[in-house]
Structure formats: structure tokens, C-alpha cells
Write a structure and sequence with these properties.
It contains three helices and 39 strands. The protein is mainly beta.
Length: about 550
Amino acid sequence: MKKLLLIALLSLVLLTFGCPEDPQEAKTGKLSLSITDKQVEGIEELHVTITAVEIHKAGATGDENSNGNSNRGDNSSWILFSEEEKTFDLMQLKSSEGLKEVLGEKELEVGKYTQIRLTVKEVKAKINGEEFDVEVPSDKLKIVHGFEIKEGEETELIIDFSPESVISANGGYKLKPVIKILTPKQFQERKQSKEQKMTLERAREIAENSECINEGVLKENAQYNENSKTWWIDFEPTEPKEGCNPVCVVNKNENAEINWRCTGLQEFCEIGKKYRNNAVDPVECECPKGYEFETVSTGPGPCPEPGMTDCPETELRCVESQELQGKGIFTLLLSDAEADITDFESVNVSFDHARIFQVDSNTGFTEIDLNGASVDLTTVVGELAVPLVQMELDAGTYSKIELYVLDVEAILLDGNTAEVTVPSGKLRIIKPFTIDANTETKFVFDIQIVKKGQTNEYNLFPVVAKSGVVGKDLDEDEVEEIEPEEEIEVDDSEFLEDVCDGNTSCPTGYECADFPAEVGLKCYPITGTESVCDFVTCPAGYECVIEQSYPVQISCAEITE
């Protein structure tokens, strides 16, 4: 009887409160991925075939298939988002016209995600009327972009393919992965900026009926600022102001005014040009590297102090420095020979200093501080090479070059890190070369990354056979020099969302500045201790520079001794 009573009570409890929730049931949200593009002159068609999309989840413990089930028990954190093959003609997906196509949709576990990876089957381009196959290194495109999936919410991201990443290489084309992620708001703003852009003809018409024309003459050159929706027309004032480079600014409200853009920074003088100078008014520029001022007397002139007589009037000009006669320009380029580099998403090598050894020299070698300069080896594979340093060296014969490595950060294709060892901490190439006076010598220092057996450990070695002077040891068509990628970070978390410009001021406690890294014109907070440069992180070897104009212009400039 007691047993029957207990069963009845348990049944009543279950009927009243129901069964407990499954603790294994994961909370999910939806991710929607679309693809868009902006137009580039010369590219008529750009067909990209994508066969798979993977998402990298922070802190996950296994790959998942399209059904969300784990494929293996390793520590990988890549999730298969889509494996449907799709082909897009990116030139038809004009972001400025609000055009995009859905790449895929999927329910994902809530949490933070760090990367998106695309598997590309092929890329075909039509450039200036001719069709090309575009090479995709490793057939993978990685997009580093953090985002969060929240329970029951949809997160939409738009992949902006950026066709500027199609670069000419070795008679064909390669796809250099320069891809960005847009939020729906940013995507809409790009469309609106196109719709709202004032024509240059209209801007000139407004400027010619404004205060600008009362103080000078409009010049031919003009630029449009997408952030502030303003035209900046070069302007020659009737009464110039020292240290100022004025423009006539026309805003979207069809008002125009002069922005004097005054700065105390020195500018480079033009070689051979004369500059007025005396004891009272020093020159407002400096000669380029390798040149110096030469004083030229032009006859009698004003005296700097009362009572002085027969004072000459002088002019300055930039002439080749006497100290640099017998010197040449040395450019050191870094390249990566194809070995096991295809195992990696990125291999960032940073350098502390270099030593260049001269034959029959009293000092033995010249040491160069590289200030932690970093190169991603996956961007300089094969014939691609990036300048590491440029300097003057004494003319003569040199025997070897040593690069001292500061650090190596390597990420494999599966998202895991790999240990990369540099034997003895330096890379050395013994290969004699000559520096000729008054000429530039370009030396390619080639290195390669090699796997150690079946482990995730690698060595970094120099490759003597593929190193040497361009035009002597290496044919010029074997080397394609590219600009180093400069990653500039701006912490805009405390900035106001509304942009500012020369016509729109910031509220009390904020100042207007034009920031790099696509942040543009923003109002940043003013405090008693922080400088505007405290919000900007420049790459190694560069420093934050403030140009005292309005709005304040912020940039990263190379550090010079």
C-alpha cells in the first residue's frame, strides 16, 4: 500500500512540474553571411567559386560538420558553416548600390568567434578585356574578425571582397587576401555615401560663390572625403599664411569655407630650388636625405640688426651632401622560398637588428636597428619581396648579412600555433656583393620555413641560392617588390559615434581628429593626462605623428634616427 502511495505521489509531481530540461541542450543564435564588393577600374568581371566556409570559435574543442556533430576529438575549433559550392561575379555585387548575395545561414552555439575561412575552388577575372585565371595561394582565404552569437538573435555579417587584392604577378594574377567584414550599418552607410556624394562640378559652383573666392583662387586638384561627405579643393590664397596649406571645404549642406591646415612640421625642400633666407627668417623646410643646404649670395640686402652695413642677401638650395659622396643607397628586401609555408595561415617574423659586413673595413660591420619590424612570410612567397630597410652605405665590397630574429608567431591552417625555431637566433647569408657610389643596390634576403619530421615544429633557414643583388645575382623579373603592410590600430571605444569635420565641432570635453585605420573623422575625449596618440598603436618602427591643423590629422610615420 505504501509503495502504491509513493508511485502516485511521484506521478503527481511529474504531472505538476513536468520533466527537467535537458542540460545538454545548447543555446544557439543565427549567423547570416553575405558577400559584396566595390568596383575597381580595369576589372570587368571577377568570378569567385567558394566550396566551403568555416567559422573559428574561441575556446571550442572539436570540429563540427554541417549538422553540428563533432568530426574528431582534437583541440581544433573550426566549425563547418557551409559546404555548398557557389560562384559569384563580384563585379555585379556593387556595395555602393546596396547589392549583396547570401553566402549561407546557420544556427551556431552562443559564444565568441574569431575568424572566418573560405575555401576557394577557382577565381577567373576579365581585366581590360582579357580573361585570366587568378591564383589563390593555398586555396584558402582567412578573415580575422571577432563577433558574438547571442541566444535567439540573428547576427548578420557582409564579406567585402575588396578587388584591390587582385595583384599582377609573374605575367598573371594572384589574389592577395585583403578582405573586410561589414556590419549591416556599415553596408548601408556605404550605399548612402554613394547616393549622397556631391559632384565636383557642383562643389566648384558652391565654392565660387563663397568666401573662398574672396580670399584667393581655386586650383584644379580636389579630393572627396567619404567620412565627412565634403569636397576639399586646393586653394591659393591672395595673402598666404606661413606654414599653412589651405583648401576650400564644401560640405553636404552646400556651405563652403577655408580650412587653412596650418602646421608647425617641417617639409622637405625640392632639390635644386632656391629658398630665401637671412638671420631673421630661417628656412621653413629641410633638404631630403643625402642633400644639404648650400648658401648662394644674390647681392646686397637688408641687415638683420640696426647699425650693420653692406649685408648680403642670400638664398639656399639643396645640393648633394659632401658627406655622402662615395656612398650608395642599400635596400634590403625580404622574401620567402616555397617550402612548407603552405601549412600556415600566417608566419609573422619580427627582427631586432641586422649586421652588414664590409671587406677590408676598419669597423668590420654596420649594425642596423630594425625596431621590431615584422613581416608575414605568407605574403612574400616566391617572387614577392618586401623592403625591410633602406639606408646609405659606403661604396665597396661586402661579404655577408645577418638578421637577428626577435620573435616568430606562426598560425597553422587549422588555427593552431606552431613552434618555429631560428637556429642560433639569427639568419646569415654569406654572399659577396658590391655597393656602387651614387646608385641603389637592392639585395633580396630569401628565407624558408621547413617542417621537422611529423611534428608541429618548424625551422627557419636562409636560402643562399635564391638570395642576392637584383639585376646581378637575380633577374629583375624574378623579384616583384611590394609595399609592406602597415597594421595601425585605433582604440575608438571612447569616441563619439557622430563624425566631425571642419564645419561640425565636437561637444565640450571632445576634440575632432582625422584618424587612420579607416576610423576617419571622430570626436575623441580630452583629458588632462591622455594624448590623442594614446588611442593609436603604430606598427613596429613607426611612431604616431600629430599634424596641428583642424581637424587634427593623425598618422604613423617611420622612426628615423
